[in-house]
# Entry
Amino acid sequence: EVQLVESGGGLVKPGRSLRLSCTTSGFTFGDYAVSWFRQAPGKGLEWVGFIRSKAYTGTTDYAASVKGRFTISRDDSKSIAYLQMDSLKIDDTAVYYCTRGTRTAVAGVKYYFDYWGQGTLVTVSS
Amino acid sequence: EIVMTQSPATLSVSPGERATLSCRASQSVSSNLAWYQQKPGQAPRLLIYGASTRATGIPARFSGSGSGTEFTLTISSLQSEDFAVYYCQQYHNWPPWTFGQGTKLEIK
# Structure
């Protein structure tokens, strides 16, 4: 069974840092991309960042709203992905979800997200 | 960035009836469109990808159609567990991956 479990959320003051973990099981983690999404209270879904598998460079992309402040990394030996969040703002308050990205290359390279973790709440408040 | 627009914002349907949800993209996304279901306090669950392919374990009463800029999610006979919020997402032009604002499907 494919599972993704986020951890590391909590209450943090503006300007501080937090690192989220996404621990996975039930699939070969190194073969897949990972993306992080978030959902502010009562709002819709927003993409945060993405990391390719090492077979496809392992590089990252970020939403404009978090670029330069958030960093995604992965440890394939542990089947864990991380979201390092620095210089946190009040607007970063949300439930953060990690997801498995499945690659398709039928007409150009595309990724869709077929499994999601249960989410972890990050609250940024003074 | 591709903007996704869902309609209606809220849909009231009786159990056993058919529900039809719409999603429009600001430019063509070909068939690179996914639908998710989200229940209160839960993570989104992938229902449909490739505009019309059901994800693993998704009942046959869920179907997706469309291509280009116009898409539809149809639930043929609503069960009590289907009342939730539904999101469409494009994965054609990325990054960013973008979502519609959601349609809340409620019991009539």
Notes: The CA atoms of residues 75 and 81 of chain A lie 6 Å apart.
